[in-house]
User: Which sequence fits this backbone?
């Protein structure tokens, strides 16, 4: 069973809510408003790179 945690940066009950779950090798990410929808599965290096790119604004639309 996967145990999900909502990001501390999520904006309340109806905002942009990201949830994460980890096991020994993989970090999972999903949209809490669509829990049965798509999920990302990332290794630790990919997660670090994703966070770095988000913080730098490289993924801004």
Assistant:
């Amino acid at each position: 069973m996967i145990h999900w945690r909502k990001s501390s940066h999520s904006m309340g009950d109806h905002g942009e809510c990201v949830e994460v779950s980890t096991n020994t090798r993989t970090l999972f990410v999903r949209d809490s408003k669509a829990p049965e929808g798509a999920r990302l599965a990332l290794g630790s290096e990919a997660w670090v790179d994703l966070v770095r790119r988000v913080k730098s604004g490289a993924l801004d639309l």
About this structure: The chain has one domain: 5-56. The chain has a mean pLDDT of 86.
